[in-house]
Records
---
Amino acid sequence: MAQTSLIASQRPATELSQAIMETGEATIEAWVQPATLDQTGPARIVTLSRDPAVRNFTLGQDGDRYIVRFRTSDTDPNGTPSLDSPEGAATTELAHVLYTRAADGTVRLYVDGREVATREVTGDLAVWSDEFRLGLANELTRDRTWLGVIRRVAIYDRALSPEEVAQNFAAGE
């Protein structure tokens, strides 16, 4: 089940970045099955970045937690402070992990249709780059390998509502 190869766009994900910058909203959705809970760093599941220190967003796994870093004009270039799930949210079972950012700065993290973390993040997306590439299962520099299976990834240029999150989870992968 372990995968160590990098899957990345060959060109910048310009259309995706620009659409999210225009709305100021985003949703990152993934059906994933971690191979282990020993992943640290956090290991990158989905990332839109240039390198390990500068990114637009990252959904990752750190041990038994999911972590999302989403850069705004008020965060550091790495997107911290991040939004972390509680300990125990990540298991080696198939999971639906979904992150939303609303235009008002409210960010939410859902695991299997349930909201597990929320916070307010100030700042806008003026610092985003439309030159970054999209990568799956690794940072673009190959130093944050995520081990597991990615069954489905969807990225939206709007924040899904809690009802839509529940519908997507109920619909399955």
---
Amino acid sequence: EASGDTYYVAPGGNDGYGGTSWDQAKQTIQAGVDAAVNDGDEVVVSNGTYTLTGVITISKAITVRGLTGNYADVIVDGDATCKCFTINAGAVVSSLTVTNGNSDYGGGVRLNFGAISNCFIVGNRGIEGGGVFTFNGSPTGAVVRECTIVSNTASFGGGIEVYNGS
């Protein structure tokens, strides 16, 4: 469990709000991530579909999770124009559907350091790692746990590409 502050994201929110309650929820996941300034903070994402205009980049050790724990309730849609997530800094993303992402390395998720858990990763495209791209032997670690990864396409590693540097 997160030990820091909690920030809220909802489709009817407003990125001008503080995100500290459901009444003051942010509208976009990236705005919620940006509000979470400390390691251990948590971003709780309400049910709905979040269509992206750019990648969600997480560079702090925070948790981003769907409200109910059921990945079918929160859909992150890359709109076939961008990668859905770049995860760094020991962040955890859980209980989301990641779909329709498109990027050279990790159409759905580029997992540099951190974890994804209980996610459904489907229908993403990339040159390497259509669903997920990560590095083998990363000094800081990357974890994929209890995820369903199906129907992603790539030249190398349709579901997951673990790049070993050679």
